[in-house]
Design a protein that fits this description.
Helix content is 34%, strand content 19%. It is an alpha/beta fold. It has a single domain, classed as Alpha-Beta Barrel (7-stranded beta/alpha barrel), CATH 3.20.110. The strands form 2 sheets. Strands 1, 2, 5, 6, 7, 8, 9, 10 and 11 form a 9-stranded mixed β-sheet that branches. α1 runs parallel beside α7. The protein is globular, with a radius of gyration of 18 Å. The N and C termini lie close together (12 Å).
Amino acid sequence: MRYIILRDDDTNALTPPECLERLYRPFLDAGLPVNLAAIPCVCSDAKRPDGQLEAFLWRANLQGADFYSLKGGSALVKYLRENPEYHIIQHGLHHKPFEFDSANRTNIAERLEAGRHVLDEAGFAQIETFVAPHDKFSRVSFREVARRFRVISTGWFELRRLPQEWWPKYAWSKARRQAHWRVNGTLLLSHPGCLLSYKRPYQSMLETIKAQIQQHQLTVLVTHWWEYFREGEPNQKFITVLHSVAEYLQSESDLKVISFSELARSDVPLN
């Protein structure tokens, strides 16, 4: 059996629920879990590391505030709670590019707790997985996140950013060419880049994903909902590729799509 975790990043209070519905209805109808990395309290001027505004800020929904929190009474949160195949994971706090690339332990802890509080208040309790904006962790943030979450999902690991006490486990995983590893009960998962991206050729995207899945027992597939709606318009060709992935995952008997929380509570092989 091969296992797949689908992770969609950047859901936030400005995200139109109809966008998620258009993308993921085939997954939901098939009972395939979709893990949404949700920004608890997105800032209205969130920028990429290059200084450009983030594309996930749905401009039509901006109303002049500096921050927008996920709230239990909103149409988006109601939609997410009505569809239990959506699994919410914590994606930073405000989604500032370097908010978890800091050596200040107090600030890191405050941001983690503030994000958790917002998600708790919205009705998403007991979240066990964390994703940092742009995968930027410091040694301090790795330690603080590992104290609070059972799973860390990121693009890659760098020795210089890892706590020194983690180095032997990391070296062992590197020697064995393992994409995923474990430290003191916390799962540390990497992914093969965003295979589902508008920057990749649509005609070969599905085959690339199939090849990646066949090479590993556990694959984390990462995408971003807003990439399918750049400039506010749906990209039907790209959406069709995503839906073809749903068909593939549903049709293959030796594949199982799971959530991060299911992984944390099972004996699924990591590699």
